[in-house]
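Design job #97: recover the sequence.
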């Protein structure tokens, strides 16, 4: 047996071959030991190893070939996982180079273990369509209608054979070699299509093109590919890389007109040009050039600098868009810096050589003829980016070396001076070696060697931290007082350059900013003079900022005042940077909570370079309501706050509260906002990411734009809000800011305290999140609109709570719906009440229930015993009371007189039955009319009886036998049959039973079992039930429509008295009815009809209650066949009149209870 591949398939092959061998050789007729030995000799060494060490056969099993085969079968073919086998089958695809026949064979083998049954062929067909490699074949198969497996295989074979024949018929030909046609172009002396007309590059061709004369040196470097293969190299050579300018072909070349050089400077210019030419920076040009620029002379005390003015060339140049490093990119690397050295590249741009084409573009005019630059000249727009990129490439990999522009900073870091010097020496040596290697020339002019503090890009770096450049400070101090608005802008703009060092800058600049307001006349006043003096004083007392440390936790403090935002970036309580800005006119109208959140947004975006991607960032705020906003769902916040919170999703913030006195830095900054609010400030020009668009997006968030209301309705809400005293106090509180404790909030606004952080103001309208806060004067009208479709109270509230809000809105909506006259007239059925069970009987035939029913046009009387559930039925020749009483007497004579009989209010159970009850001494109890649940025991027995009679009639059986068997069947969870509980014996039936079983036995514990059943049924029933409040005498109610009343109107009546625990006697239009509590609804006084004509203010006015009509005032109205009293009697007093018992009653007869007051 082969162990290569799938063992299960290999075993099937081996077993089939062995069985064929046994059949051919006739070895089956020999002794089993010989058969077993033959099997072992054929299975191979690997299979014998399995046989010896894995099967654990007994001695007898080792001599039986059938046992060996079965055990090997179990080993090589374990139980299959159908789900996995189907997954493997569903993953089969035709491999590259695999024929369709082999693919189908593989599919058949896989499908054999999937237990597809009759669907096997269809599944293989589907797998062929989905897994075939040829896309065109798949399309043809999908277009075929009624595709079968055989058809699919034949189509695939035909397509496969067609492809084979087509490849055989193809003639292998190569396209003829053609020389490239070289376009005729001006000043193009070489072939334009060199790349296209030559074969792909090789190392030899690249060397010939880049450095044809450079010597090739052997290299010890081994080049290893991603795949692990080693790539052999020809060697290494040195060459000088050049800079190439990419031009926009749509911008035409311009030849500028030449300009004269002043006579006094001609000699110096000539000398400088000769020096540049001698140094190899420029060369004369005699050939025509498309682009010619003018020369710019920059006179400096030390030397004369010449550059070009390539105004038109810069328009055509394509930028490489290389990110220029800033000081912020360096500062975070200096937390342990102690030793510094600053060097600069000498003639930085002139160390970059131009290629020939780019050199021609830099041609410029001189009095001594045209010249062109061989090196990267000053004035070209792409020069800084090109040089910065090349410098970064040359110094890549050197730690502690920070190049910005042509300056290179060397930093020695360590916990001690010795460690810092050692670190510095190693970095300086590495820099010098790299500069020698790449031939980067350094200058001595800016050299600051191994100093404790260094001047670097307008700042002073030291081991203590960051300080401003004294030259910048001196420039502010020496600036004269402004004489116009532009002078103020220059002063504030220059001060903003040092704003990160001035936490008190904005308060000083506030008077100066007022001079920049639109349409403000220029008046220089003493306060402006004092502001300039204070500004210059601040410049002389600026703090030292700590270096940013990526390993330390970071904190931002932010605060907002009425005029500006302020923030501070801190680590371990020491400032790293300050920032502030003024609020725009739109932002000044924000609620205080929105301003506070905006200050956090400003801080995160201003310090994005430091904060993004950090672990939890602590944001300190002195506005306590802002804390809960960050912990609530986003949709609960107002729209503008949602926009701000979405902006902050990029930062892992942990907002904490800090009292205002401890937030002195950010508080001072917010009240001292620097510069103008937004546009064109130095802050924005130096910011890592522009905040202008985000600020405008937040400013333009208007909650009213998201409301589906007309402008007239919005104006109405705004007008009523302005007239609402409570909402005006709330509005002022929101704009100024909520106090820290509830007791300090305005009294009339305290009800909004729990969700104060969700309230905002937009265009004079108050919002709670996305919901409009409705003023009190508009609430009646809104209630009418909410309930205009007359839906239920809960539904109305769910509809209203999405867009509207006012305190106690849910209660007011429910009260409004409950007092709606239309809803009360056409109300649904009330919810069922909890189960109220009858008294438990303690013996048989003590409590009975009766009911009448009709089956197949025959009338029956059913009597059921509450104790045993045993029921009797009597066929009635008619439905008269006399006939019913006769049948009852016969049953009572058989089983005895009951104590209580429960019936409905049918005509058979009226006066005659009452006399019968009196004569036979039992209590007659009637259930509430139209409420069959009150006589549930009889209703359940009627259902069983009807079912037995119906089935017996269907089979043509004797119904009395069915009733006999039912009476003799034990009841579930009772352990006895109805007959046993009633008669203390089993009844003899056609089912065989021993005499012992038919002997009388008293059943005990029936009452307890009945109590348990009732409790269990009540617990389940009461889950969806609730009790209704009891009705009081004289209370106005509405009665459920009578049967046959198609209008569905609940009629108004008066409650006269309670007949039973849940049954009441009511007077409706002069007729008396007894009804269950669920059929009676309290009719609340309503003024809905007058509200429609008198305006919204009348919606809560009480309706005048009219006393129910007496019999003398209105004739009786009989709308039901059997009211309790169809001919009313004139009462001695009006129905429902309050009794004279010394208590106070309402006009509808309800007892007025005085309130319970706390007495101390």
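Job complete. Output follows.
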């Amino acid at each position: 047996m082969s162990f290569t591949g799938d063992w299960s398939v290999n075993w099937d092959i081996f077993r089939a071959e062995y069985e064929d061998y046994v059949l051919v050789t006739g070895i089956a007729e020999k002794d089993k030991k010989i058969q077993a030995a033959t099997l072992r000799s054929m299975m191979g060494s690997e299979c014998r190893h399995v046989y010896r060490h894995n099967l654990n056969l007994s001695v007898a099993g080792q001599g039986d070939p059938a046992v060996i085969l079965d055990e090997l079968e179990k080993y090589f073919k374990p139980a299959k996982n159908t789900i996995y086998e189907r997954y493997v089958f569903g993953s089969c695809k035709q491999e590259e180079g695999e024929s369709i026949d082999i693919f189908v064979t593989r599919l058949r083998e896989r499908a054999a273990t999937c237990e597809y049954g009759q669907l096997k062929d269809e599944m293989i067909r589907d797998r062929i369509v989905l897994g075939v490699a040829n896309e065109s074949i798949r399309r043809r198969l999908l277009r075929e209608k009624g595709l079968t497996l055989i058809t699919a295989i034949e189509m695939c074979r035909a397509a496969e054979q067609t492809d084979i024949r087509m490849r055989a018929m193809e003639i292998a030909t190569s396209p003829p070699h053609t020389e490239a046609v070289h376009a005729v172009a001006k000043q193009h002396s070489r072939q334009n299509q060199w790349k296209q007309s030559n074969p792909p590059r090789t190392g030899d061709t690249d060397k010939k093109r880049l450095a044809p004369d450079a010597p090739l040196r052997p290299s010890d470097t081994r080049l290893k590919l991603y795949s692990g293969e080693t790539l052999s190299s020809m060697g290494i050579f040195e060459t000088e890389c050049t800079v190439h300018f990419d031009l926009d072909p749509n911008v035409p070349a311009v030849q500028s007109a030449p300009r004269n050089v002043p006579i006094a400077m001609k000699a110096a210019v000539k000398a400088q040009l000769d020096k540049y030419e001698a140094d190899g920076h420029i060369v004369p040009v005699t050939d025509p050039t498309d682009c010619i620029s003018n020369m710019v002379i920059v006179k400096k005390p030390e030397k004369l600098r010449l550059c070009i003015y390539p105004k038109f060339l810069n328009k055509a140049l394509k930028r490489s868009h290389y990110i220029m490093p800033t000081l912020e990119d360096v500062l975070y690397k200096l937390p342990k810096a102690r030793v510094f050295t600053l060097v600069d590249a000498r003639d930085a741009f002139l160390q970059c050589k131009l290629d020939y084409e780019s050199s021609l573009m830099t041609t410029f005019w001189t009095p001594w003829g045209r010249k062109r630059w061989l090196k990267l000249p000053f004035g070209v727009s792409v020069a800084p980016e090109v040089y910065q990129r090349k410098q970064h490439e040359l110094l890549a990999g050197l730690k502690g070396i920070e190049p910005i522009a042509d300056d290179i900073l060397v930093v020695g870091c360590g916990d001690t001076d010795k460690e810092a010097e050692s670190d510095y020496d190693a970095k300086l040596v590495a820099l010098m070696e790299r500069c020698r290697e790449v031939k980067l020339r350094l200058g001595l002019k800016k050299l600051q060697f191994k100093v404790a503090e260094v001047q670097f890009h307008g700042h002073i770096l030291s081991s203590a931290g960051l300080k401003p450049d004294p030259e910048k400070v001196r420039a502010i101090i020496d600036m004269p007082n402004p004489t116009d608005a532009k002078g103020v802008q220059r002063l504030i703009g220059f001060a903003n350059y040092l704003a990160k060092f001035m936490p008190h800058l904005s308060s000083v600049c506030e008077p100066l900013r007022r001079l920049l307001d639109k349409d403000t006349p220029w008046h220089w006043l003493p306060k402006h003079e004092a502001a300039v003096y204070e500004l210059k004083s601040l410049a002389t007392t600026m703090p030292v900022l700590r270096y940013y440390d990526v390993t330390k936790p970071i904190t931002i403090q932010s605060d907002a005042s009425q005029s500006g935002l302020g923030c501070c970036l801190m680590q371990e309580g020491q400032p790293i940077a300050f920032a502030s800005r003024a609020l725009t006119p739109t932002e000044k109208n924000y609620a205080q909570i929105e301003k506070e959140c905006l200050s956090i947004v400003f801080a995160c975006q201003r310090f994005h370079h430091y904060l993004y991607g950090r672990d939890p960032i602590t944001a300190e705020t002195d506005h306590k309501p802002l804390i809960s906003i960050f912990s609530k769902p986003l949709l609960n916040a107002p729209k503008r706050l949602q926009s701000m919170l979405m902006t902050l999703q990029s930062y892992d913030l942990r907002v904490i509260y800090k009292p205002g006195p401890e937030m002195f830095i950010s508080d001072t900054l917010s009240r001292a906002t620097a510069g103008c609010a937004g546009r064109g400030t130095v802050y924005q020009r130096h910011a890592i990411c522009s905040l202008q668009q985000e600020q405008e997006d937040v400013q333009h968030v208007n909650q009213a734009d998201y409301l589906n209301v007309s402008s007239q309705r919005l104006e109405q809400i705004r007008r009523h809000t302005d007239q609402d005293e409570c909402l005006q106090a709330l509005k002022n509180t929101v704009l100024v800011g909520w106090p820290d404790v509830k007791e300090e909030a305005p009294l009339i606004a305290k009800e909004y305290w729990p969700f104060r952080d969700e309230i905002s103001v937009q265009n004079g309208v108050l919002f709670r999140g996305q919901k409009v806060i409705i003023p009190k004067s508009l609430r009646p009208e809104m209630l009418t609109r909410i309930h205009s479709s007359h839906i239920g109270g809960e539904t109305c509230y769910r509809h209203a709570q999405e867009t509207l809000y006012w305190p106690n809105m849910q209660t007011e909506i429910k009260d409004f719906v409950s007092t709606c006259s239309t809803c009360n007239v056409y109300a649904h059925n009330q919810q069922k009440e909890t189960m109220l069970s009858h008294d438990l009987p303690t013996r048989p035939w003590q409590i009975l229930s009766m009911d009448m029913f009709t089956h197949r046009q025959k009338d029956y009387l059913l009597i059921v015993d509450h104790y045993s559930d045993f029921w009797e039925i009597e066929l009635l020749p008619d439905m008269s009371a006399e006939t019913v009483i006769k049948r009852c007497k016969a049953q009572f004579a058989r089983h005895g007189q009951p104590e209580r009989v429960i019936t409905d209010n049918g005509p058979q159970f009226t006066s005659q039955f009452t006399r019968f009850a009196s004569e036979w001494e039992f209590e007659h109890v009637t259930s509430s009319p139209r409420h069959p649940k009150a006589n549930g025991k009889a209703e359940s027995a009627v259902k069983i009886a009807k079912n037995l009679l119906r089935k017996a009639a269907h089979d043509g059986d004797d119904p009395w036998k069915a009733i006999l068997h039912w009476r003799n069947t034990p009841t579930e969870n009772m352990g006895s049959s109805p007959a046993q509980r009633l008669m203390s014996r089993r009844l003899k039936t056609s089912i065989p039973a021993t005499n012992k079983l038919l002997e009388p036995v008293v059943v005990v514990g029936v009452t307890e079992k009945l109590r348990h059943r009732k409790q269990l049924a009540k617990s389940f029933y009461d889950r969806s039930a609730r009790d209704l409040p009891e009705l009081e005498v004289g209370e106005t109610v509405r009665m459920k429509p009578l049967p046959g009343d198609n209008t569905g109107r609940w009629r108004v009546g008066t409650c006269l008295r309670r007949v039973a625990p849940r049954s009441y006697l009511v007077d409706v239009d002069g007729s008396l009815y007894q009804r269950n509590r669920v059929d009676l609804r309290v009719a609340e006084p309503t003024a809905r009809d007058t509200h429609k004509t008198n305006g919204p203010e009348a919606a809560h006015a009480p309706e005048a209650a009219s006393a129910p009509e007496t019999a003398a005032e209105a004739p009786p109205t009989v709308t039901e066949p059997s009211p309790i009293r169809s001919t009313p009697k004139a009462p001695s007093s009006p129905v429902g009149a309050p009794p004279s018992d010394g208590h106070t009653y309402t006009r509808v007869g309800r007892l007025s209870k005085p309130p319970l007051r706390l007495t101390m």
